[in-house]
Write a structure and sequence with these properties.
It is built from 19 helices and 16 strands. By secondary structure, it is an alpha/beta fold. The strands form 4 sheets. Strands 3-2-1-4-16 form a 5-stranded parallel sheet, with helices on both faces. Helix 6 crosses helix 9 and helix 14 packs across helix 15.
Amino acid sequence: MPPKSLYVRYMETPRREADYKPVAERITNYREFRLSLSLAEIAEQANRCMTCGIPFCHNAGCPLGNPIPETNQLIAEGRIKEACGLLHIHDNFPEFTGRLCPALCEASCVHVLNEESVTIRQLELETTELGWQNGWIKPQPAAAKTGKRVAVIGSGPAGLAAAQQLVRAGHEVIVYERADLPGGILRYGIPDFKLEKNIIDRRLDQLCAEGIRFECGVSVGIDIAPQYLRRLFDAVILTGGAMEPRDLAVPNRDAAGIHFAMDYLIAANKSIKSAGQPPVISASGKKVIILGGGDTGADCLGTAIRQGAVSVKQFEIMPKPPENNGGTASPARAVWPRWAQILRTGTSHKEGGERRWSVSTKRFLQQKGVLTGLECAEVDWQGGKPVEKSGSGFTEEADLVLLALGFIHPKHDELLNQFGVELDGRGNVKVDPQTMMTSQPGIFAAGDMQSGASLVVRCIQGGRLAAYNADKFLTGYSDLLAVPPL
């Protein structure tokens, strides 16, 4: 047995996550409701890290290659400022990943083999917030300019990461965004209760101070020609996201009251931004059904509850994942250090609503063109395909249906058509995996537009990788740090 001090440190200190405000209080507004840990609690949780000789959290879990054991060691020693600096070497926006990433690193933590993982994401977030509070996070303008100009199209996490890397390398960077403000999906696709927009704005202030210029309300391909950008800039990075939603082709799909989830979330966020102007799509006083069991569906759930829905139900066609009860037979342990498909219950699910799995929607019900409900059936999965269970049909009343079925690829609109970039078999922008360059020389792509809908941490990774290769294309070499996909 190891010395008692180590045993206590690794095995007897339980995992402790931050508490949340009571449900009854938080659903009355859209403010973030996470409560912070004390410095002593942060250090105690960081001390649970075993600083493994082979840190799977770092090399198998985190797409950004964050030096997690080293960061945790600094936190445990009370060297928070150094830990904050170390985090920022690999992750441009740890306050985003600390809030939104599903924590692939924690799934790879060695503690999963016996108990609960280290609270890596929580430690990352607490450290970064302390960095902001203490003024440790400052603009880092380039010491010298290269004379090269780069256009970044799209200001989501991939675009912002690429832009910051390139401006720090000394290039002039202009970011074009079709919305009225920068942030992409972070601003209009993520509810405020998960990411308040002042969190984005303070980071944008840093980016602007470093020299990035944002041109908002500009749709490239409509307001400005791609051919013009190619003459004006030495390189272009496409980071417009994967915004073509997956639809549901069943009878009466055109009934009024059926909306894509992202349209609903964007409307809700714009309503909050405009100081309470009623959203164009609202769940107030309605019976809501969300089709799709992922994070976007959960965001719709939390938003609908706050808007005053009469009821909210979330249907998922896939079977219910197994619960992770720990021990040697746990699903997470069985696939460690990979990401386990286990039941995950988010904060929105704890606020209300009902979840059902293995449910297929057969048709929408309507009267005079207006949605009244759904006709559904339970399914069994056989050979990877859903098979309707005999006699399992049922109907549900609904005034509002939100389709949270994921995204299939970027929009094939004027932007991609006029740039003339080649697409892959899934309809995403095709790139050389070594250089992130598209079929057009000097045009790179990153984030969901290139990979398909993914995670915020992978978008940041893609943006950094595209920036590294664009920098190398422009100057012949690059000192920027980037981690290629595993």
